[in-house]
């Protein structure tokens, strides 16, 4: 049975990646693959590879020789920076690990372990489309903000809405418990399923208590 890793990503903490996992798991079961690990990230795809714990974990797993394929729902799950996505695919290819994009039924390596030239071209195009899609979205958001400012709309938190320390500590009590175990900010964020920035604010609230 082919050992594989499932790789999923969403951009925001409020988003859910369970649907991605379920769909890919169903495909893996149908193909008779053995799922060695499921790597899930909640981080912007625009982040650099070195800033993404999931990508680091994926490449480490590939280097260990324990997997033969990486299954993603679509190329943009690997990232939205073309150069970084292609760098990940190249490193995986060098390790003999194929990347399969479920939405296009596309794979970087042939069954014989050779590079798939058609897939290489399409993955490059798809990665570039993902980058352009994000840039277009950012431009639209910025344009909307500028229009709102011109209309006199006040942006940001309403005055007086900033959370006080007691409220923050009560809302993020799981983070408080984990922080008291003297783990790092990144470890705490992963265990509590929140952003590192949130952990940093909770830690400051604890110190100011």
Key terms for this structure?
8 helices, 5 strands, alpha/beta, 209 residues, Rossmann fold, 5-stranded mixed beta sheet
Strand order of the largest sheet: 2-1-3-4-5
CATH topology label of the largest domain: Rossmann fold
- What oligomeric state is this? single chain
- Report the sheet-strand fraction: 5-15%
Q: Per the principal axes of the C-alpha atoms, what is the gross shape?
A: globular
Helix run count: 8
Q: What is the CATH architecture assignment of the largest domain? A: 3-Layer(aba) Sandwich
Helix content: 40-55%
What do the pLDDT scores average to? Answer: 84
Sheet with most strands: 5 strands, mixed
What low-confidence regions span 5 or more consecutive residues with pLDDT below 50? Answer: none
Number of strands: 5
Summarize the structure in words.
- The protein is of the alpha/beta class.
- It folds into two domains: 127 residues, Resolvase, N-terminal catalytic domain (Rossmann fold), CATH 3.40.50; 44 residues.
- Helices cover 51% and strands 13% of the residues.
- It has a five-stranded mixed beta sheet, sandwiched between helices.
- Strand 4 and strand 5 form a beta hairpin.
- Helix 5 packs across helix 8.
- The longest helix has 34 residues.
- The mean pLDDT is 84.
């Amino acid at each position: 049975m082919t050992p594989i890793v499932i790789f999923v990503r969403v951009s925001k903490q409020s988003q859910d990646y369970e649907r991605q996992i379920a769909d890919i798991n169903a495909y893996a079961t149908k193909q008779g693959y053995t799922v060695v690990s499921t790597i899930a990230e909640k981080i912007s795809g625009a982040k650099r590879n070195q800033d993404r714990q999931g990508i680091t974990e994926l490449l480490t797993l590939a280097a260990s020789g324990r997997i033969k394929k990486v299954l993603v729902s679509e190329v943009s799950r690997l990232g939205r920076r073309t150069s970084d996505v292609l760098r990940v695919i190249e490193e995986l290819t060098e390790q003999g690990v194929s990347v399969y994009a479920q939405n296009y039924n596309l794979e970087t390596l042939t069954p014989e372990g050779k590079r798939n030239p058609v897939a290489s071209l399409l993955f490059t195009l798809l990665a570039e489309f993902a980058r352009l899609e994000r840039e277009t979205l950012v431009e639209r958001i910025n344009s909307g903000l500028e229009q709102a400012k011109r209309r006199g709309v006040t942006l940001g938190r309403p005055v007086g809405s900033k959370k006080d320390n007691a409220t923050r500590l009560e809302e993020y009590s799981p983070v408080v418990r984990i922080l008291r175990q003297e783990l790092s900010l990144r470890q705490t964020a992963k265990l509590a399923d929140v952003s590192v920035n949130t952990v940093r604010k909770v830690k400051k609230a604890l110190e100011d208590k």
